[in-house]
Fold this protein.
Amino acid sequence: MNLFRSMQVFVSTAQARSMSAAASKLGISPAMVGQHIAALEERLGTRLLNRTTRRQSLTDFGSSYFEQCRDILDRVAVAEQEAQVSQIDARGQLRITAPMTFGTEVLVPALGRYRELAPKVKLDIILTDRNVDLIEEGIDVAFRIGTLPDNRLIARRLAPYGMMICAAPEYLARNGAVDHPTGLSHHEIVAFTPAARSPWKLSRGNETVEVTPLQITSVNSGQAVRAAALAGLGVVMQPVVLLAPDVQSGKLVQLLPDWSLRQRRMSLLYYRDQRMTPRLRSFISFAMAEFGGPPDDQISERNEMSTGNL
């Protein structure tokens, strides 16, 4: 017989001091109550009840066992209650990973608004420019720039990740302005390491120009690339979210504003077979409202993930 069920029957019998009363409460026959008690006594190797024709009383061991069983059943009831609450209430820990620049400049500043929606969710934020394996590192949801690594992932498409080209006024005063993309090849370039040798592709109307910078200083941090630009070390291409405030303040100058750069796809990822907990569902809804893109937002692709996370 099921041990847990037998414990429930025993506790009910001890509280009612009658097998027939326990049977009525539990919706089973008195004979079935007797079988559960007998199964427990056989398992334990000792009597739990002193039986008479009218009433049952606990043996000394039965009294001790009754207290332990009641404690166990109470704990299980509390756990089940908490589980039911967790099914409707977003709570517990949520592990999120995002590229360093996006995470620092966009995601983290927005999390105060998520906190208002889900105050019981504990956030563990991992900011890194490497492609994290969600399962291996226990990640619930990831922000990713580029295409998907495999078809096990669900991708919710976010707004494209825009880029801009900038330099400090002091640098331009020393080295001259840039009037056309081809002029970039004569300038010092400070580039984010994973994309340091990738050509810069710019378009204006029907004209498209691809420029491969020659003089390059590479740095493995988007924030460090920005710092290098502010220090006048060269021309940089970085996300709009990182450089726009410096352009607005006059610390940097946007180059070739009439030319458009290729926007990069950004997605919110989670595994297809992952259980959709209230905390995960609440964060996905928040992220789509906060950073969402086009309506065709559920895609699964097999292409290799781009290495140029920013």
The chain has three domains: 3-88, 94-160+264-299, 163-261. Residues 295-310 have pLDDT under 50 and may be disordered. The two ends are 59 Å apart (CA to CA).
